[in-house]
Write a structure and sequence with these properties.
By secondary structure, the chain is an alpha/beta fold. The chain contains nine helices and five strands. Helix content is 45%, strand content 6%. Helix 5 crosses helix 6 and helix 6 packs across helix 9.
């Protein structure tokens, strides 16, 4: 990782992986020959990147989502810059928000997509909430894993987003129908959650890219609120895939 010290060292997922010997720091300007997860990338990560990952690994920029304009992306050198397709954060700080992944989630996502799920799970296992990343994103990741090219991953992402919007529209229509009857009260757990298609404009007050295990319990209520919705979403996507 390229570490720009935007986050509390005790809360940073990249630094935690480094403490476990699973991540190493790169100098600004240092060339990296594997794939680099960067918002400046053009191509999306796809299974065709497997050979690059096998040979040289995955790198990520460790920084705050709110301070991207401070990063000298021109000095982060790699011929293989990549972006990730649509995925949802499972970390407690940005739980349920599309694209706003921590370092560990981003690297794990790339590893899952290229077929190295066992390595992804090793990284995620260091976090109390880590198992939730696969549970939340399995319907998406499994579909990306079946693609051959970056273009086919983008096409799959577009299909997923369309399906999510259809589910969201149906939920809102159902809530509107319930709201038309003065004697009915909508389920607040479902009403407060819906897929968010804007990603980078929102930032938690912490300014941190993630949270460590000690904060996972504090977010338990938020996680519980989303579980029913995620279960319904997974069912809807499974039905769509079968169809």
């Amino acid at each position: 990782m390229w570490d720009f010290d935007h986050c509390d060292p005790k809360r940073c997922s990249g630094k935690k992986l480094a403490r476990h010997g699973l991540m190493r720091e790169l100098r600004v300007g240092q060339r990296f020959r594997g794939i680099v997860l960067s918002p400046k990338g053009v191509d999306v990560v796809s299974p065709s990147d497997r050979s690059l990952v096998d040979e040289a690994g995955v790198a990520v920029v460790e920084c705050s989502w709110a301070r991207l304009d401070e990063i000298p992306f021109g000095r982060i050198r790699s011929p293989h810059e990549r972006i990730l397709p649509y995925l949802v954060a499972a970390n407690p700080v940005n739980y349920g928000k599309p694209f706003k992944l921590t370092c560990v989630e981003a690297v794990a996502a790339a590893l899952y997509i290229v077929g190295l799920g066992n390595v992804a799970e090793q990284l995620l296992s260091k976090f109390g909430w880590g198992h939730s990343f696969w549970e939340m994103n399995a319907p998406f990741l499994e579909r990306y894993q079946k693609c051959d090219t970056p273009q086919s991953v983008v096409a799959e992402q577009d299909a997923i987003v369309a399906e999510l919007k259809e589910v969201d529209d149906a939920r809102r229509a159902a809530r509107d129908q319930e709201g038309s009857d003065d004697e009915l009260v909508a389920n607040t757990n479902h009403a407060t959650w819906r897929p968010q298609f804007a990603s980078s404009d929102e930032e938690e007050e912490s300014g941190s890219e993630g949270s460590d295990e000690s904060e996972a319990d504090d977010a338990a209520d938020d996680v519980a609120d989303g579980e029913d919705a995620n279960e319904a979403l997974t069912t809807a996507l499974e039905s769509a895939r079968v169809a």
